[in-house]
Amino acid sequence: MKGIRWLIALSALALAACGDDSIQSPDFSPELDHIEVTPATGEVAAGDTIQLTATGFFTRQPGVEGLDSGTIDADWSVDDSDIASVDDDGLVTGLSRGQVTVTASQDGESATAVITVLSPLLVELVFEPSEVEVPVGAEQTVTVLGIYAGSEEPRELTDGTTVTWTSGNVTRATVDPNIGNPTTVTGVTTGGTTLTATATNTTEGTTVTGMVGVTVTDAALVGVTAIEPDEATIGVGLSQQFTAIGTYSDGNTAEIPDEQLDWSSEDEDVATVDAEGLASGIGEGETAITATLQPAVSPGIADEDRSASASLTVTPDQCTSRFLKSNGASVLAETGPNLLLCLGCLVDDEINVIDDDFDNFANMIIPVGLLQGYTEITVSAAEGTEFAAGGVPGFIISRPANALLSAELVSQLTVTTLLDGEEQQTTNEITPLRLTLLGLLGDEQQVLVTLPEPAAEPYDALRLRFSSGLLSALATTNVYSACATTDIVAEEDEEETP
């Protein structure tokens, strides 16, 4: 570029020589006499620019008075690059308050300009973001930028400018730090307020104030915390409801709505899980049940916080058909024969026997019982449902922690089949219960108590009676489920009472 402009300047000089009818020497070449920089002095605010121009003055051929001039591409420099900078075209940018000398040089000639850099004049504040929205308990960073005189573009505030922040309603949103830039807004309660920033340039003594709206929304989900229950065991063909628990910006935890989740099973040959977190046992084994936030839900949450898993074990189920409320089953609890023979006897939470949560149980309690005082639970199938002879019905029961089942206990329990309210078959001292161990549930040993042989008559209801014998005190039996049919006949390794 410099070479091109230099040729243009030479051409102009040659034409000028021809124009005044003088005789041009073919060996004449104009020479740079001196340089001038315009403006020679100037002021610019820090962050703004000022354009300088270098003009070259050139000798004419012998006999022609005066000098020719033209803009030249000089080499530009400043004596203090901390105060200002200059590019190859002479554009000076103010950096910090002070004064610099800008020099234009070419072919051994040079000229200077003195530029004073002033503190910029702040005229307006601009907020990022322009509207603040923050959930309860969450934080939002807010930065203020400045628009300075002579410019429409917002930029960082200059050194020496102090920003003070205030919240219009500290019960709605707080701000910290109160002095500094940027600051952090924290949501306190839902609703709207304002945030005010006051910028003061301590050097110039100028102050500018701006305001931005703040909206505090409901607490936002910040991560999937856990799956409840975190461990579960069900039988093949049975179900377990899982729930995803999330942590929210206000520090509280709550159930995450299923419509925000994708549920999955690690091994669908063991169990499947539907869109509501209900897992169904398919085959024996273990699998992980995982709840993952859908992509559109809280996309700012890190990947490692977007899901959680629970462990599900599926075991062969002795109950091949259960009496369930969801299938129309009903339950009735009774005590007897009178208060004197069964003082304080009761059945607590009998509905748990027919609900879909197989970890729940009813309590059959005999605080003091004499002469065959009893409590009993009768479970009936939906109206019109009848089970054919040949099935082996029973109940899944346990004793409280550290109270192991024994033959003595079994002798106090009877299982009876009924049809239309009439007894069909019952266990007694002559036909004792069959007792099959099912393993452990916490500290409580679960067993399946059934008729000793397949039922000889059809039935539509099943009754479990817990009697006191001659005397019982503080006796309790937990009843988990009623089994309309079981598969214990096929079990070869079952454990039975003598």
Describe what you observe in this structure.
The protein has 498 residues and is mostly beta strands. The protein is built from two helices and 41 strands. The strands form ten sheets. Strands 29, 31, 32, 33, 35, 38, 39 and 41 form an eight-stranded antiparallel sheet that branches. A five-stranded antiparallel sheet has the order 30-34-40-36-37, with no helix packed on it. A hairpin with a 6-residue loop joins strand 15 (173-176) and strand 16.
Question: Could you write a compact summary of the structure shown?
Answer:
The protein contains two helices and 41 strands. β15 and β16 form a beta hairpin. The longest helix has 18 residues, at 2-19.
Radius of gyration: 46 Å
How many β-strand runs? 41
**How far is the first residue's CA from the last residue's CA?**
111 Å
Shape descriptor reads rod-shaped
How would you state the average pLDDT, rounded?
83
Structural category is: mainly beta
- Runs in which pLDDT lies below 50 for 5 or more consecutive residues are 1-23, 404-408, 439-443, 489-498
H/I helix tally:
2
How much β-strand is present in the residues?
over 45%
Helix content: under 10%
**Could you give a short account of the major beta sheet?**
8 strands, antiparallel
